[in-house]
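Justification of computing resources. Each target in the renewal requires a structure prediction run like the one illustrated here; the chain below, 430 residues long, is used simply to show the kind of job we budget for.
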Amino acid sequence: MTSDSSRSIQLFLWFGVLLFSLFLLMPILRNVKIAVITSLDTSWIPQLQNYTQFFKIPLCILFIALYRPQHLPKLLGGTLAISLLIILGYFFLINSASTSPETTATPIWLYSSFYVFADLWSPWFGALLFWVFANQTITTDQAKWMYPGWGIFAAIAIFFGQLISLRLGLDIWDNPLGLMLTISATFSAIIFALVFLSLNRIQYLSAQFPAPQASASQFSLNFRIKYLLFIFGIIICYGLCTKIIDLSMKVQLKATYPDPTAYTAFMGQYMQFMSSSNILLFCLTCWWVWVMGWFRSALMVPVIALILGTALFVVHLLGYAPDVLLWYAIAAKVIMFGISWTVFLATKEIAYIPLNSLTKARGKAVIDFLLSREMLTSWIVIGLLVWDVKLLDAPSPYLAFVYLGTVLVWFFCLFKLKHYYNEALSATQS
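Resulting structure tokens:
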């Protein structure tokens, strides 16, 4: 085995450890935030989600102002240390407020701010800092097999995080504070140690064989803006297609299982089906980018979306029973979700790599962190519901045209991005 191959494998493993460490707390924080806000009033959730988006603005500005390629590991490690200390602080504050005899009312501001903090964890660490660090360290050739493969580290982390939440005698609905104590006292130290170790090893390995970086002078401002806009268009099109498929599934689910007990039993089966299907799809698609290359793999996603969406609306028009329609909608959602990491996310992140460091980092901060796919596609779907509220009760033919138009825009953005990507890649390699 050559030294370059050994270094690539080590980079793959240490980045996987870093991703595992950052993702381990995501399901735990998600469960705790649901528990603490449910103890107050679920009507607060939409307002708190707006607060989350508001706090993204100063964080995005702070990242853009502080970002320097050589200082990014310190920024990642520093914000992680601060975040883990904040979790400790929340535990002591909430525990003091709950046990103090002088406290007569629930500290709403404390629980609400924790909800916002937990909501920011995934986009800040998972969507922004990790991938900016990877995109400035990994080459395009390495990314073709590394990026899809990291999905297994994320899946294992989420599995263990869920296991910690639900299997170790910590019932989040009855004892969220006990879970927070476990996070604070045990997992914070373990996670920080793993992140610190992996960052040091990645810096050492990347210093030996640094990835080639383009300079800002190689690309005009107009080139960089168009390049990032086409990436943004692809992200929104993917998000809108998955939202429409999800909406169709919810419509059939409501029609098939109106009884809450039957709905709960079905969701248990659905989660098992989702887990096993994701493993199968990971094995079937993790090699696509490596074998077929960036563009062909990226092209497969809208092709699959077009086939699934067309078949879904045809099945609706043929008037099949609701349970048949439901399982077809579930299959479509599972397939789209299953290829999200191994194909869509991998090709989307690879598209950033040929750009110069500042452009891809700042562009990613705005596109993937500030203007998140989930937020924008939710707004679009809300707009569709305002236009035709009957979409909640039955699929509309208008929705089929919206879906088809979205896929066509997706193809347009992808073919335009291919031209810019090849030009940027040639400039970087030269």
